[in-house]
């Protein structure tokens, strides 16, 4: 009974969004009501704790909405300035094949954004960019979510590792570096296939043939790109630690992917464009804008994100100048929602949009018009996100109860551990995915479940670091299906209300990735 109650935070959204195909606006509202009711009754949470958790979720939803707003403002501004047309021409000079574009934009450029920002920013940026390239909106949303996976294990300056594992005994820089190397080693098996998985999803769901033949033709090139990313990630993790792996590996991959695609190496001669949205037409004629000028706002985004995270004085200013953090909500100690406004990727994206009209010498009206359009775009998403984050925080804070029960996440983890025992390496990544599916964060998933993974590894005699690495990679894969990421991705591509359909397309890749992580972890355990 208690296990079923704990699983309600997973079962209810799955039923409403995936099976009944409700829009998240309704489905997550009903799911939140169910979890709140069960938390109050069965789990024995006090009304004050539940209300504080709901307010915490509402506050966190505002932080995510700012990121969505910033991403849409930037894209709309670049549409009005003509930069999007120039970016399209630049991609066509590399390759007009949408399979190539998906790998370069969603996987490699998205990984670069992940390394600079994290916080779900990549899908919010790459989804709209693929829309601008002519991708079917459903394809853009699904690909953006699936691609934002491998890089998440290292995230922005190693956050999922350094923060996610910070509550374990003996956690220090050497420990974090060792975990980073283990993650990169396992990802040689799992992450290498992410570009190919992207192409399979693109051709299977959105191609005219609806089969694998158009994907198989791309297998050699995608494996080259995937191995370039994961192989260089292992090298950088071993040499420098986990902080800048996502940035350096994605830059390495971008160089190799761009050069090989431009020369047509390992690629079929016929260009594939089946996933173009209806009515899309690429503007003919050469743009007067330079390619560097068109891309400059995105370079500004990366530069500002890195400055606010690496340079101590700039970071301190960004964290403290405008701090909207809500601490100890309703007087409940530990229920806190952080929001450092200038540190938010959303603020950076809005600033980049503002800078764009100056760099590209366009009227300021382009920016104001983009602001108005973007506010309309995020209206419906705001209610869905509030319900989603309310559910998440009640679930996460459920250890605060009057029935002397452990939290719902811990209850689920213990039930899984007792059921699988010695086969745990194949389950470990899925516990990570489960945590990310509910909380929407690889870091929070690892903070929640790392102690459980640590204990199980010791009890079963498995290498602790390998099991923890599997947890983190699994949590990264959970980004593909996490509800609030899906809500965000659907919003920025204009598909609000289609969240269940998106999850139907990302669930398979998330499961496949988890299986590959288990295999990679098993292989690594065989050598240690």
Shape: globular
Report the oligomer: single chain
| Residues in β-strands, percent | under 5%
Q: Roughly how much helix do the residues carry, as a percent range? A: over 70%
C-alpha end-to-end distance: 39 Å
- H and E string: HHHHHHHHHHHHHHHHHHHHHHHHH
Structure explained in plain terms:
The longest helix has about 35 residues, at about 45-80. It contains 25 helices and no strands. Helices cover about 70% and strands about 0% of the residues. It has helices at about 1-5, 10-20, 25-40, 45-80, 85-95, 100-115, 120-130, 135-145, 160, 175-185, 195-205, 215, 220-240, 245-265, 290-310, 310-320, 345-360, 365-375, 380-395, 410-420, 425-440, 440-460, 465-475, 485-490, 500-525. Helix 4 packs antiparallel against helix 18 (about 365-375), helix 21 runs antiparallel to helix 25 (about 500-525) and helix 22 runs antiparallel to helix 23.
List the main descriptive attributes of the protein structure presented here.
single chain, 528 residues, 25 helices, 0% strand, globular
Briefly say what this structure is.
The chain has 528 residues and is mostly helical.
Helix and strand layout, with pairings?
Elements: H1 2-6, H2 8-19, H3 24-41, H4 47-81, H5 83-94, H6 98-116, H7 121-132, H8 137-147, H9 159-162, H10 173-187, H11 194-206, H12 213-216, H13 219-240, H14 245-263, H15 291-310, H16 312-320, H17 345-359, H18 365-377, H19 379-396, H20 408-420, H21 424-439, H22 442-460, H23 464-477, H24 483-492, H25 499-526
